[in-house]
Design brief:
single chain, MetI-like fold, 2 domains, 25 helices, globular
Length: 537
């Protein structure tokens, strides 16, 4: 320990100090949330615990359970079809299956609920055709409807990670199984699923975190989750203390899930007997098999992307004259302002911490990197509550009147805490790929770490920085819970305005801000697809 302290003092510099300040800032909201459990609960909390908490936990668990099951089912099947087989239009479907990630689930929920309503396009068309169906059959504003929406728009997390694993590491195992006379179904069940379990669990955990973080779908469909309870306690009962306590228990639950996921993946590691890993060579399907594969892909692509996207475009043509105004461009500029400020801070802090962890490889810097990225696994509502607690504490020490004037800073800070991982992980991967050889050569030539960073490292990290910044920018634009909780008075973003339109049953008017959000997301998906193809070539 004494040796470590001496080394730390010797290696302390501006980069490390800035990293420690950043890590402390990221940890503060979590610290204030957890310490709320030490205070004495008020009367509202007792009422929540006695009459509502059980239902909140049960509905949250049910929503997560069934969404996880169906996203795994669809994501793994699609990854298997596209990775293992060769069929017409496979190149299109390979990236088209990612596009549903461009539609935030709350936008998909608003779109489908209107399309399937009594006056929506589906029931109206059926009545014109003389087909009589019970209107309640199309009512998706319930827990099963929430599972339907989350499954459609979140399955790409499982699909992407599983497909990457199958294409990169499963070739040798499948070839050996084929040589032993195993049929494709047996290979899928006995070989692919066990090998892909860590990848599937990784994608599943991303889905779980997204579901637990959601407020738009659950509040619109009337699903009583812990996240909606936090909002109701804050805005309905004006009880920040009970909201903090709910956020603390949700945070503990998420941390528990994270630990369980790590343990499962640690205990389910599979290692090859050789360091050589053959990529998967797709097998050509028969004409009948090709038709079936195409139909499956078309079915999923249509429901998860094409149908809601086309419907939004139609509504946009109906309402653009009413929506396009000076206010709309104000919402857009507000959205860009928050996203740009938060993204810039995230990328600067990511570069600082990643540079420190590169030239100081020890348990301390490893812990530092974990702390910096911890916010991504926490729901936005939880972080928002923690950020509010931090600002209330410090403004009370200075001047309570400062709180309202700092609300924009609260929103930016909350996004920095929430999405540090989306900026940091690509930067860390870029540093690892680059190695330390350029750093060592530059230091031997007498250049400082800072000069080396600006003259050598930064030019080599341009592609990585672009990818990380773009991913972070998109996530911030889509974020709804924190924008609703932390935004300044009379400050609207595209996400909050979309939510307001939907809450006021103005679904068609919500189309244009929704399409702006989707457009940015699709642009990022296209750029990432191009960057991925360039790195593969």
């Amino acid at each position: 320990m004494n040796t470590f302290v001496r080394n730390l003092k010797r290696q302390t510099n501006g980069w490390l100090i800035l990293s420690l300040i950043g890590a402390a800032g990221v940890l503060l909201p979590s610290f204030f949330i957890l310490t709320s459990l030490l205070s004495k609960p008020n009367e509202n909390w007792q009422q929540i615990k006695d009459y509502f908490l059980k239902d909140y936990i049960l509905e949250s668990f049910t929503l997560v359970l069934f969404t996880g099951m169906f996203t795994v089912l669809i994501g793994v099947i699609l990854a298997w079809i596209i990775s293992v087989y060769e069929f017409p239009f496979k190149g299109f479907f390979r990236w088209a299956m990612i596009l549903p990630l461009g539609i935030p689930p709350y936008i998909g929920a608003y779109t489908y609920s209107n399309m399937l309503s009594y006056t929506g396009v589906v029931q109206t068309t059926l009545r014109k055709l003389g087909i009589a169906i019970d209107p309640h059959f199309f009512d998706i504003m319930s827990l099963p409807g929430g599972v339907f929406i989350f499954t459609l728009f979140l399955y790409p997390y499982v699909y992407l990670i599983t497909r990457a694993f199958l294409e990169g590491q499963s070739g040798s195992y499948m070839e050996n199984a084929l040589l032993l006379g195993r049929k494709p179904t047996a290979i899928f069940l006995k070989v692919v699923l066990p090998l892909s379990r860590p990848a599937i669990i990784g994608g599943l955990m991303l889905v779980v975190f997204e579901v637990l973080s959601d407020y738009g779908v659950t509040s619109y469909f009337g699903i009583q989750t812990i996240t909606t309870a936090i909002f109701h306690t804050w805005f309905g009962m004006y009880d920040v203390e009970s909201a903090l306590r709910l956020a603390a228990w949700l945070m503990i639950g998420v941390i528990g899930l994270f630990i369980v996921e790590r343990r499962i993946r640690h205990n389910r590691k599979y290692h090859g007997t050789t360091s050589k890993s053959n990529p998967l060579v797709p097998r050509k399907l028969t004409p009948r098999g090709s038709i079936l594969a195409i139909l499956v892909c078309i079915l999923v692509f249509s429901f998860a992307f094409l149908i809601p996207f086309v419907q939004l475009i139609i509504w946009a043509f109906w309402t653009y004259q009413d929506v396009f105004s000076s206010s709309f461009w104000e919402w857009t500029m507000n959205t860009l302002l928050v996203a740009i400020l938060a993204t810039a801070m995230i990328m600067l802090l990511s570069l600082t911490v990643a540079n420190v962890t590169r030239f100081q490889t020890n348990w301390f810097t490893t812990l530092l990197s974990k702390i910096i990225t911890s916010g991504y696994s926490l729901p936005g509502a939880v972080i928002a509550i923690g950020v509010l607690a931090v600002f209330i504490h410090f403004t009370n020490l200075l001047s309570p009147s400062l709180l309202l004037s700092m609300s924009l800073a609260m929103l930016v800070f909350g996004n920095v805490v929430r999405f540090m991982a989306t900026g940091y992980n690509p930067v860390e991967a870029g540093f690892q790929k680059m190695g330390v050889r350029y750093l060592e050569v530059s230091r031997l030539l007498g250049h400082s770490i800072t000069r080396t960073f600006f003259k050598v490292d930064l030019p080599l990290l341009k592609g990585t920085l672009l990818g990380g910044a773009l991913l972070t920018f998109v996530e911030i634009i889509k974020e709804l819970p924190m924008a609703l909780l932390l935004r300044p008075f009379n400050f609207e973003t595209l996400a909050t305005k979309t939510y307001q339109y939907a809450s006021n049953e103005q679904i068609a008017e919500a189309a244009i801000p929704s399409l702006f959000i989707i457009g940015v997301c699709l642009l990022s998906i296209f750029i990432f697809h191009q960057l991925g193809r360039r790195s593969e070539s």
